[in-house]
């Protein structure tokens, strides 16, 4: 349950218990932040080996959430690619710039954690736009937590969302 829904339910229950008619909560409920876009999109081909990865959200994010965005060679269990992370001035756009050019004719996977939170502490919504951007839900199997796998370091807090998935993965291929 998102923090937004929890706050709305709290006000409804308080109103029912006290018999009061509560039209609006005393503190405003912040809008829910959504994942909006990623470049390159999942399934992209002929991506430049020097292009940055750009991730856009509908509202401001907590600066430390950049640790829940990782780029991997191959699939999500492949080696992590060192990237510099930078937020836009309004904290709605995260740019990951690989420290070295990517290799030509290779598949790469961007992994965004499902437990990423905005400045209000609410978990972001990936549902609406993630699939439209070529994303796929990161299940335990995708993350290497099959019968023999350990899952690595991208399955804990901040990576796992309320739907039980470990965020989304977006695969693309360089030229």
Number of strands: 10
| Shape-level CATH architecture of the largest domain | Sandwich
Computed CA radius of gyration, to the nearest angstrom? 18 Å
Q: According to CATH, what is the topology of the largest domain?
A: Immunoglobulin-like
CATH class of the largest domain: Mainly Beta
Tell me the structural class. alpha+beta
Characterize the overall form: globular
Largest sheet: 6 strands, mixed
User: How many DSSP helices?
Assistant: 2
Strand content: 25-35%
Q: Report low-confidence residues grouped into runs of 5 or more.
A: none
Could you state the order of secondary-structure elements as H and E? HEEEEEEEEHEE
The domain tally reads 2
Distance N terminus to C terminus? 41 Å
The average pLDDT is: 85
Q: Classify the helix fraction into a percent range.
A: 10-25%
Structure description:
The chain is α+β, with helices and mostly antiparallel strands. The protein has two domains: 1-30, no CATH class; 31-174, Immunoglobulin-like (Sandwich), CATH 2.60.40.1220. 11% of the residues lie in helices and 27% in strands. The chain contains two helices and ten strands, in the order αββββββββαββ. The chain has helices at 3-18, 127-130; strands at 35-39, 44-47, 53-57, 69-73, 80-81, 83-87, 93-98, 107-112, 136-137, 168-174. The strands form two sheets. Strands 2, 4, 5, 8, 9 and 10 form a six-stranded mixed β-sheet that branches. The model has no long low-confidence stretch (mean pLDDT 85).
């Amino acid at each position: 349950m998102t923090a937004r829904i929890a706050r709305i339910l709290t006000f409804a229950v308080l109103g029912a218990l006290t018999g009061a008619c509560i039209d609006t909560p005393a503190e405003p409920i912040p809008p829910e932040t959504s994942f909006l876009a990623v470049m390159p999109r999942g399934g992209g081909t002929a991506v430049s080996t020097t292009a940055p990865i750009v991730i856009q959200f509908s509202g401001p994010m907590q600066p430390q959430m950049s640790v829940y965005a990782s780029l991997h060679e191959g699939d999500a269990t492949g080696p992590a690619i060192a990237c510099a992370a930078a937020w836009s001035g309004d904290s709605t756009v995260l740019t990951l710039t690989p420290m070295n050019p990517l290799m030509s004719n290779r598949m790469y996977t961007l992994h965004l954690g499902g437990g990423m939170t905005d400045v209000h502490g609410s978990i972001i919504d990936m549902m609406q736009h993630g699939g439209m951007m070529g994303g796929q839900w990161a299940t335990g199997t995708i993350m290497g937590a099959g019968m023999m796998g350990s899952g690595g370091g991208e399955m804990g807090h901040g990576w796992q969302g309320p739907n039980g998935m470990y965020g989304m993965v977006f695969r693309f291929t360089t030229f």
